[in-house]
Amino acid sequence: xxxxxxxxxxKPPKPAVPPAKSPLPPAAPAxxxxxxxxxxxxxxxxxxxLEQWYDLKSRIHRKLVEQLDLTALSQRNSDEVRxxxxxxxxxxxxxxxxxxxxxxxxxxxxxxxxxxxxLGPLEALLKDPNISDxxxxxxxxxxxxRKGKLAVASVKFRDNAHLLHIIDKICSSVGRRCDEVTPxxxxxxxxxxxxxxxxxxxxxxGPSLSIRRFGKDPITWDDYVRFKxxxxxxxxxxxxxxxxxxxxxxxxxxxxGKTTLLNNLSSFIPDTDRIVTIEDxxxxxxxxxxxxxxxxxxxxxxxxxxxxxxxxxxxxxxMRPDRIVVGECRGPETLDMLQAMNTGxxxxxxxxxxxxxxxxxxxxxxxxxxxxxxxxVKAIRQQFASAIHLLVNAARLTGGPxxxxxxxxxxxxxxxxxxxxxxxxxxxxxxxxxxxxxxxFIATGLRPAFLERLNAxxxxxxxxxxxxxxxxADKDE
Length: 477
Fold this sequence. Notes:
There is one protein chain. By secondary structure, the protein is an alpha/beta fold. It has 15 helices and 16 strands. It folds into 3 domains: 1-118, no CATH class; 119-214, Beta-Lactamase (2-Layer Sandwich), CATH 3.30.450.370; 221-473, Rossmann fold. The protein has a 10-stranded mixed β-sheet with strand order 9-8-10-11-7-12-13-14-15-16, with helices on both faces. It has a 6-stranded antiparallel β-sheet with strand order 3-2-1-6-5-4, covered by helices on one side.
């Protein structure tokens, strides 16, 4: 127990997010070590009161686990269970005789509920709809990205063991593991957010956790236009291309929004088509009625049982798909995807990590050759040129804005080179006073050769949208 003199310094960390209108913390669990935005984070080893707060919370949480059958409670209504556990925590708080005021006591209860049912300090960040990335470099350093800009978060974990416990919670919920045998893992949260974790000895400064969030309300094409990430005419063109069963390759660098773009492109697929999606960690949120979702599996502790993207892709060909959507091609599955596109699975889509449409071609060549396939470069290019109809290049520019940089038609081969032509593109004109890149979208004046194919599928396009002009500008011109 704490002595009376110690109790006077026992203060909970300040919240990292503004409180709700209610004077009490929100029902969702709050974080264990939060500070108000702009305030100076307090190092736990420098603040005895904060350390005692953690100790008190740990003791109560340990007693709670000993007192309640949490496994049995998990089978009951979540609200009912939460209220029952809340009452048990309140009683344990009273038994500790800690001198806490009403708000501190309520916050302590919420934090313990957080550790019991949620993801500890992550919960406050996961509740913020403006956060797109959460980057954790050890227990004491957390960054978040809001609206394209990185900032230090005031959330902290108590120590490495605390952070490892949260990582284990995330991994076990999707049947995966992260330990010394398997120190790297890809997983996902219940809301579909993508998670990557890497722990010591590979992560030298402590466990590292990266979370890419997609939000409860997925970004729509209306949002793309409102954010000036694309011009309306380009959206209509892409709608026709997807409806017309063109094979599309989404190209972009890290954080450019490839998966979000792929998800939105898939929204144009007719409801009558049977779609098979294949991913390392399920992120796509297709809304069509006839969708089969497949997810790869890492090896077990004995190094057996691994099911790779390529295995799922080969198997999907026996599932009578109309379209195959692969979250990302980054290995030997690249050649299989090209062959699938060439053998009757028109309208299929995937993404690839490359910074431009030209880089995408070289990236495909590299991945196929590194996979050990004994194919000449010309044969790989022929596969690419016959399989891919359209390249859509996404990018994140200086200052954070994301743009569709180019929509490019793959025309075919001339000699040993793949020929392409840009139909629409974004031209960057400069950097504004706030440090953000700006520019405009233009139609290049070139018409794609596949227009007749689109017309045959009933996806007609007004030829006027291809006339060379500025379609949408970030600033008045």
